[in-house]
Amino acid sequence: MAYVNRTNAESGVNLLALRSHNAALVLDLLRTAGEGGISRLELAERTGLTPQAVSKITARLRADGLAAEAGRRASTGGKPRTVLRLVPEAGHAVGLHLDRDELTVVLCDLTGAVVAERRVPLDLGAGADAVVESAAGEVEALLARAGVSVLGVGVALPGPLDHSRGVLHRVTGFPEWDGFPLRDALAGRLGVPVVVDKDTNAAALGIAVVGRESGIGKTGDVLPSPLESFAYLHLGTGLGAGLVIGGGVHRGARTGAGEFGHQVIQLDGPPCGCGNRGCIEALCLAAVDRGAVGEAARVLGVGAANLVGLLDIDLVLLGGRTVAAHEEAFVRGVGAVLEERARLEGVDDGTIPVRVAPGGARGVAEGAAQLLLAPLFGRGED
C-alpha cells in the first residue's frame, strides 16, 4: 500500500514544496501561536517582512488549507485585526523508532501532536529484509486506520549511521546492518520520502522544536528558553547522546557525533559490544543488570560531566526506558556528579540542571516525525 506525498485529498498541496525561508518563518509563528492565533501585523513585526509579503504568504497558506482564521482581536486603533492559526490536520508525518527489541510508530499532525500510535516487539537482528518488511507493515497498518496521507516517514534507530544518505554503519551488537541503505529500502517499499537518523538525534530534535512549549522535566523549574544548548542522554538497550548546540542538532561532518556510550572511562573494564573495554555503555548496563542503579547513575554522571566540560552546555536531559524505570535515582546520581565537578572547578554560578526529558516512551518516535516536520518550519536542518 503506497501513500501519496500530499497533505490531504482535498487540497493536494505538497508541503515539501513550501520550503521558502519566508514561508517557514510564518508557518513557525503560526505553529507557536497555537489556537489563539496571530495577526498579520504581528507576523510582519516578528519576521521583519513587509505587510504585503506577509499578506501574500498567508493568502497562499490559507488557499492550501494550512492556515485559517481564528477570530478577531481588538486593535489599539482602527478596525479589529483578523488573527490566523495553523491548521494542524492539514498535514501529517510518521515517526518510526526501531529499537533493538521493540518497534514504535506514531502519526503526528503539523504541531507534532500524536494522533495515532502502534508498538510491537521487534528483533533488530532478524535481518534487514525482515525488519524492513515488519516496519513497513506497521506503518501501513497505522495509516490505513487513520485514513490520512503523509509527508513521509522519519526513522530513528541506534547508530552509528550516515544521516545524509540514510545508510547504516556497524550498529553495536548488529554488525550485519553495516552498509545497509535503510532509507532507500523503506522509501521503495512505502512509496513516500524517508529520512533516517540516530534515535538520540531524533529525540533531541523533537525536544528542541517543541520542548519549551510542552515543558521540560517534572519539577516546574524555569529552564533556558529557547533551548539553545543541551545534551540528551538516552539509556535504554544502549547508550547514546543527542547534542543541540546553537539551537540545532549537532551531527558532525560525517553525521557521526553523539556516540557518547563508547567513550572509554576504565581501561581494564568489561568488554563492550563495540570491541573496546570499559565503555560507559557497558559499565552502565552492567551496573543496572546487577541492580546497582546508583552506580549506573554515577557512571552516567561522569560521562555527562565530560560533555559539560567539553561543550559548556546549559542543560542535561535524561531519557530511555532504563532511565524511565529509575527516574529519581538517575537525576539525583547524575546531578551529584555534576555538582561535585563544578565544586572542584570552582564554578560560581551553580551546576548544570539535570532533568528527565519530555516525551516518555515515545519521545524518540515523536522526534523521528520531526525529521519531516521541522524543516517545514525552518528548524532541524543541517
Question: Features of this protein?
Answer:
382 residues, 37% helix, 20% strand, globular, 5-stranded mixed β-sheet
Strand content: 15-25%
Query: For the CA atoms, what is the radius of gyration?
Result: 22 Å
Number of strands: 15
Order of SSEs: HEHHEEEEEHEEEHEHEEEHHEHHEH
- Summing up helix and strand content along with how strands pair, one would put the structural category as alpha/beta
Helix percentage: 25-40%
Sheet having the most strands: 5 strands, mixed
Strand order of the largest sheet: 6-5-4-7-10
- Contiguous low-pLDDT stretches (5 residues minimum) are 1-13, 217-222
What is the average per-residue confidence, as pLDDT, rounded to a whole number? 87
Give the helix/strand layout:
Elements: H1 21-33, E1 38-39, H2 40-47, H3 51-63, E2 67-73, E3 81-86, E4 92-98, E5 102-109, E6 114-121, H4 128-146, E7 153-157, E8 161-162, E9 167-168, H5 182-190, E10 194-198, H6 199-214, E11 229-235, E12 239-245, E13 248-249, H7 280-289, H8 293-311, E14 315-319, H9 321-325, H10 327-345, E15 354-356, H11 363-373
Parallel strand pairs: 4-7, 7-10, 11-14, 14-15
Antiparallel strand pairs: 1-3, 2-3, 4-5, 5-6, 8-9, 11-12, 12-13
Helix pairs in contact: 2-3, 4-5, 6-11, 7-8, 8-10
Care to describe what's here?
By secondary structure, the chain is α/β, with parallel strands linked by helices. It is built from 11 helices and 15 strands. The protein has helices at residues 21-33, 40-47, 51-63, 128-146, 182-190, 199-214, 280-289, 293-311, 321-325, 327-345, 363-373; strands spanning 38-39, 67-73, 81-86, 92-98, 102-109, 114-121, 153-157, 161-162, 167-168, 194-198, 229-235, 239-245, 248-249, 315-319, 354-356. The strands form 4 sheets. The chain has a 5-stranded mixed sheet with strand order 6-5-4-7-10. A 5-stranded mixed sheet has the order 13-12-11-14-15, with helices on both faces. A hairpin with a 4-residue loop joins strand 8 and strand 9 (167-168). The protein is globular and about 75 Å long.
